[in-house]
Prior knowledge:
The complex is a heterodimer of chains A (about 110) and B (about 400). Chain A has helices spanning about 10-15, 30-45, 60-65, 95-105; strands spanning about 1-5, 20-25, 50-55, 75-80, 80-90. Chain A is of the alpha/beta class and about 110 residues long. Chain A has one domain (about 1-105): Glutaredoxin. A five-stranded mixed beta sheet of chain A has the order 1-3-2-4-5. The longest helix of chain A has 16 residues, at about 30-45. In chain A, about 35% of the residues are buried. The mean pLDDT of chain A is about 90. Chain B folds into three domains: about 5-115 and about 240-310, FAD/NAD(P)-binding domain, CATH 3.50.50; about 130-235, FAD/NAD(P)-binding domain (3-Layer(bba) Sandwich), CATH 3.50.50; about 320-400, Glutaredoxin (3-Layer(aba) Sandwich), CATH 3.40.30.10. Chain B is built from nine helices and 21 strands. Chain B has helices at about 15-25, 60-75, 135-140, 155-165, 185-195, 285-315, 330-345, 360-365, 395-400, and strands at about 5-10, 30-35, 75-80, 85, 95, 100-110, 115, 130, 145-150, 170-175, 195-200, 205-210, 215-220, 225-230, 235, 240-245, 275, 320-325, 350-355, 375-380, 385-390. In chain B, the strands form five sheets. In chain B, strands 1, 2, 3, 4, 5, 6 and 17 form a seven-stranded mixed beta sheet that branches. In chain B, strands 8-15-9-10-11 form a five-stranded parallel beta sheet, with helices on one face. A four-stranded mixed beta sheet of chain B has the order 19-18-20-21, with helices on both faces. In chain B, strand 10 (about 170-175), helix 5 (about 185-195) and strand 11 (about 195-200) form a beta-alpha-beta unit. In chain B, helix 1 runs parallel beside helix 2 (about 60-75) and helix 1 crosses helix 6 (about 285-315). Chain B is elongated. The interface of A and B includes residues 29, 71 and 90 of A.
Amino acid sequence: xxxxxxxxxxxxxxxxxxxxxxxWWGPKCEHCMELMPSVEELAGKYQGRLKFCSVDTxxxxxxxxxxxxxxxxxxxFYKDGQKIGELAGQEIQPEDxxxxxKQYAK
Amino acid sequence: xxxxxxxxxxxxxxxxxxxxxYGARAKLKTGIIEKGKPGGQAATTEELENYPGxxxxxxxxxxxxxxADHAAQFGADFIKDTVAAxxxxxxxxxxxxxxxxxLAKAVIFALGAEPRMLGVPGEGKLRGKGVSYCATxxxxxxxxxxxIVVGSGDAAIEEAEYLTRFAENVTIIVIHEEGKVDANKxxxxxxFQDPRLNWKWNSIVKSxxxxxxxxxxxxxxIKTGTEEEFSTNGVFIFIGTQPKTELLQGIVELSxxxxxxxxxxxxxxxxxxxxxxDCCDKYLRQVVTATADGAIAAFAAEKYIRETELWEKxxxxxxxxxxxxxxxxxxxxxxxxxGIIDKFMxxxxxxxxxxxDATRNELVKKRYRLDTGKLPVVYLFxxxxxxxxxxxxxxxxxxxLVK
Lengths: 106, 403
């Protein structure tokens, strides 16, 4: 997983080739912290078939809002600089994330 | 076949965790099924300063983590799964999760409650886009932005104060007359003194508006009937909770609002099924009452399990006939009559006698609809079934009963 911030978001996510998954999280978001090991496991499992990034929103608040993220956790999928998919809310489970990854994986 | 737990606890919030501590410490094989991280709703509370012995500075996530560790120390198993279906009438009781099936002698239902939704246009679409039910999770995203808080109970007032640390403007939308809130007096007075909080009285939210993010809400003054569009970036909704009891519909008795009905032992109307915490029909929903429920439920479940096991072994399983004498130990004359059966038993090989203090054994009282006003009474069991009974005990009648 690549830790992305306001400086390199453009380059790592919007300019990237193929599909990029971005896990938006925050240290105060219990559900984000709980999902994180599963997200990292999925990033390992689907390595090379999708690019995996994460953003700590606590230092990148404006970036989050620019991407219309105003609630955590949020898992967004991008392709060619465009948002193509999104999972948001307290109900997200690892199975949901994997199902969406499968949909976009090469 | 999967292992049979003595006690399975559904839900890892404070109620479930306390039940886990009591169950595991009583040497029951105890499992706690929780879909995510233990802690429940309490884990998302930033400040939790009214749990006895844990004052200011305590966090919901810290306290519930300590409870989970405590339960694990005593040997409770944590099972990470989502409860999907229940079959609680037979024995053992079956709990189907998304990942596996679990069996148990007794079950404590402690799946808690979830935030109630407002049910207004825009709420679903803008969830995570400014609509939030968790200030701790999302507050810092609203730094320098404007937010409203809907509701005036303890959660609403406390979370509104927390939000003032981040947001530029925090406005509380209250349905009541000016000066009236549902929160406890201490919180309310502190909030009224807080210059960072703004108030909108006699008001309800009619809709949440915005395209990609929340832009405004439409408020209605219920006294004057006037509507206004109020600009905001965030809508934090704290208007109470609703129980997560869909799985119990038609299985145990629920209140009209869907809360589980229990007695003082946290028993539901179904044998061996207990409930604890916010999912119960109760007066006060707090961490301290949830843990109390959990302790009571686990204690009652332990008693149920022990009584059931003993009953199985001594009365229902034997191939030979079994006499069961139900008595009241405080009734001397009645207890003496039980002595007649003792005498009768002398030299009888193919018959056993079990004496039950009917004033203490809830299980048999319920199962056999025993009238504790008519003790002592003798039942004859054969292959697990009641074959005959006798109220007026004397030697001749006992001999006839066993024939």
